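**User:** I keep going back and forth on a fold encoding question. It is easy to fool oneself when nobody else works the same problem. Could you pick a protein and write out its sequence and tokenised fold? Could you put it straight underneath, so I can go through it closely?

**Assistant:**
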Amino acid sequence: MGPFLNEQELAIEAARAGARVIRERYGLAKEVRVKAGSRTLVTDTDIAAEAAILKVLKKHSAYSILSEESGLTGSEEGPRWIVDPLDGTSNFARSLPLFTVSVALVEGAEVYAGAIIDPVHKNEYFASKGGGAFCNNRPLCVTEQSRTVFSLFLNHGHQLRDKLRYTEVNARLAAGFNIRKLGTTALELCYVAEGGADGFVCSGDEIWDFAAGVLIAAEAGCVFTDWQGNPWDGESDFLLVARPGIHQNLIEKIRDID
């Protein structure tokens, strides 16, 4: 794999390539458009960052790549790189400093490596399966804390059904949790791994939104399941990531929502 010792290092290097492009363009005039058949935004920076990331991955790895803007390159079988070149495009387009680059290596229901970079604050989050989670080489480890009110990131996909689920979940959880939403799933999951929030609940996200983030949170000690408490099957977009101490409580409150 060239000069890189392992897939984790390659994920970090590819994410850094995208982060450099984004950092150079942040705050400048942007070409913003709505994706065909979607209500989501894309900018010229999304495309440029993706090109930089894919160049690194293709140079040093033969694995397939699934990226948000260009789709699948290579076989659907076996390990593949999952790339979100700019998670939080709407924030970026409005010069709000909450967005990331996300790169993960996934095979089936297993996420083996992940890297998420916050280009503005220059925070690099990364993890490998069984190898722990880190931010700028500092180990991440969630700890149980005595609190009267916990905070949650509550998110949803772009389909109407997911927005309606968001309303229902919010109604059930708002009394017992402080609900937050940043507009970037990847960064929200990193903050959960750091202890900035206690959990994350979402339906409708795409795999490039969460693949790296759920690994980072899980390696930091969070529990990652679907809304019924089952291990992720590689396909479900009903996502629940939380501290062990509140995970079961959340399941009991939302498990019947479909």
About this structure: The radius of gyration is 17 Å. Residues 7-25 form the longest helix (19 residues). The longest strand covers residues 110-118.
